[in-house]
Design brief:
There is one protein chain. With 92 residues, this protein is an alpha+beta fold. The chain has a single domain (15-91), classed as 2-Layer Sandwich (Ribosomal Protein L30, Chain: A). 46% of the residues lie in helices and 23% in strands. It has helices at 12-15, 31-41, 47-60, 70-82, and strands spanning 18-24, 62-69, 86-91. It has a 3-stranded antiparallel beta sheet. α2 crosses α3 (47-60) and α2 runs antiparallel to α4 (70-82). The longest helix is centred in the middle third of the chain and has 14 residues, at 47-60.
Length: 92
């Protein structure tokens, strides 16, 4: 049997480190379009939260649309880009 200090349990963040999906402002997409794209692209997002993300993106130039494991972040970014939006992924 190994001593307790050698036994290590891995946390979820160690196994699936979080990444941020960052939505960037542009001069091409209407606010309503951005809200709809967020709702269709990111699971479990409410209309209220999608509106908050859109406004923060508009006012500050960018906003975190989601924080999740990398594979899911890549999916969300691709979906947002399919609606003509600009999104990037950053390590959280």
């Amino acid at each position: 049997m190994q001593p307790a200090e050698e036994t290590r349990t891995r946390t979820l963040d160690e196994l699936l480190p979080p990444y941020r999906v960052v939505l960037h402002n542009d001069d091409h997409n209407a606010m309503d379009h951005v809200i709809e794209a967020l709702l269709k692209s990111i699971s479990n997002l409410t209309r209220k939260r999608a509106s908050e993300i859109m406004l923060e993106t508009h006012e500050r130039g960018q906003a975190t649309a989601a924080t999740c494991p990398l594979e899911l972040a890549e999916l969300y970014r691709e979906r947002l880009e399919s609606y003509g939006l600009t999104a990037t992924i950053e390590r959280a």
